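Q: How do we represent a protein-ligand complex in a form that can be generated token by token?
A: Start from the inputs.
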Amino acid sequence: MSDTPSIQFVKGVGPRLAEKFAARGIRTPHDALFFFPKGYEDRRRIIPLRSVRGGMTVPVRGQVLAVQGSGRGWWGRRLLEVVISDGTGRLSAKWFHYRPSLAERFRVGETVFLCGAVRLFQFRLEMHHPEILAVAEEFDPVNMGRIVPVYPAVEGIPPRTLRKIQWEVVRKYAAAEKEFFPGWILDAARVPPVHESLETLHFPPPESDAEALLSFSSPPQQRLIFGELFYIQWALAMRRSGMMKEAAEPLPWDREIVEEIKRRLPFRLTDAQRRVLNEILKDMSLPHPMHRLLQGDVGSGKTIVAWVASMVAWRKGSQTALMAPTEILAEQHFSRFSSLCRDLPLRIVLLTSSLSAKEKERVREEIREGRADVVIGTHAIIQEGVEFKKMALGIIDEQHRFGVLQRAALRGKGRVSPHLLVMTATPIPRTLAMTLYGDLDVSVIDEMPPGRIPVETKVVTEDRRKEARERLHREIATGGRAYIILPLVEESEKLSLRDAKRTFEQVRKEYPGTGVGLLHGRMKAEEKETVMRRFQEGEIRILVSTTVVEVGVDVPEATVMMVEHAERFGLSQLHQLRGRVGRKNRPSVCLLMVGREQGEEAAARLSVMEKTNDGFRIAEEDLKIRGPGEFAGVRQSGIPDLVFSDIVRDARILTKSREIANLLLVRDPDLTHPEHAELKSWLQSRQVATSLVTSG
Ligand code: ADP
Ligand code: MG
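Then emit the structure tokens for the protein with magnesium ion bound:
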């Protein structure tokens, strides 16, 4: 709304504060209207000091008993202490490094209103740096006697002043805000129009449901949350419908290839594997590109599904590209596919960045000329200079390790739009999947191959290390194989390497005569390959490794997963690591070692791992603890940061926004209906600000 005046002309602002606002991106009253409270404080009732407890944030009133501007507190800081009493109790307000003018505001015997977080110090109530609501009974209708908004900090503007300015802005400008959602959408979402929302949001009327406000479930808040999520869902729906209109080469299966595949399967497929294969093969048989996410917990058997899809593509004379995030995993897929395809006239090649220039060129040529039928590799596949003759199926393993752009790059390697299958073992909470992968259809393998025994998991604190070690001994003595994983030290790769090497030496001393191997990211591809092969074949029995084995690695004989400094890992990551064991019908154990200093808190967080083997539950828990930003794949996804919404808290409205976005796309895909004119310009203005729609 460029026709609104500068914020400078709002009462109480002026050029100096206008600059402070500008630094926060707030230039007009309109911007200020959309600068929302991050929370609220219920200041409707003054709380008698008798009822005040530590941990509360409350307004209190009292008579000043003493004002003590001591030069320095006993710990050497300047300290102002004001003791108040309301006849039911006493409280002492403290300011550190205070300005002298502050002390002058208080006079013994006068009444003051304060608001702040209460703490208990030596059985006495204290507030540090409380907000001074009023001195000597002057009443402030914006800052007290109501539910007050708490805004995110704007540097250089004290909270009280900010609130007063917002009060002016809302009174003058809120009513003029135009609603861009048409009535039918507001009705369907069951949210109020924006101007009503704005007033209530900034300064909730006294009869508001304070709890609803504090938990962000009040209707005006839902309106904003809806708006934010709706945009994302609409953009994803657009992307998806755009892709569905593209033409792709149909790759229908036929009886002969199905027989051939069946003959080669090393085991009976689970029902879940069969079901997802049906979904995938059906997509592939259509003249529009498949866009499917295959989700399945660690060890649920996604690789074989990918292999079947590639067999069908080969049968139809097309190339398949399979991209994995690590070389170890690419190698593993390569050898697995090779053995599944033994004696077939089908050429599989491996393309990773550690090939020599000459080898690379040779492989590229095979790809270009169409002699390579299945190309398995790392990022190297999507690099420049790799040209496929006729790639019609692209598969990405461990999709969450890649970003949207890489997904797009792989698509770009196809002759026409290729069918795309992306697989992930990180179980993504449903709500997060909806935002991350809202443009994909989803298939889920929700069943493990038969005979698996759940991995026994133990969180082990430092004082019980001996027991853990004995357990490891026993496993090794009876023929098991073990991983010992060391975390990546973020500050320095060198340090983690030193850690890994030291542990490796220790373990080697401890187990003379037992093969011990070391694996880390700095090793050359051939070295890694050799170590992995020796571990697979049982020559190495204990593998000390950094997290390079986190995803995908499959050595079914391994039965012990020992993770050092487990507290440094996210739960989902630990679940991935745990998934490296328990892959056969031999009981396996996962030992999560917790460092001495971290102790109990970490142990409590990790105890979820002991309780459940369900990757989805673990992911939900992880999402609650770490928030979506920390979740694998979110940062690379191109999804704009969420300001109002929290996809855990707002799951219901997220689902709703997705339904309505899809409905809108059906009713008026190009937004030509006059009723959608405002919405169209809003969506377009947001589109400019994010890369969501264009980057798919
Ligand atoms: P992920 O889904 O984690 O990629 P993998 O594809 O690596 O899992 O499979 C895990 C292990 O389970 C492999 O050793 C694989 O051979 C085995 N497997 C997969 N499907 C079945 C099945 N239907 N029956 C028995 N074993 C299976
Ligand atoms: Mg896998």
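The two ends are 30 Å apart (CA to CA). Residues 178-245+653-696 form one domain.
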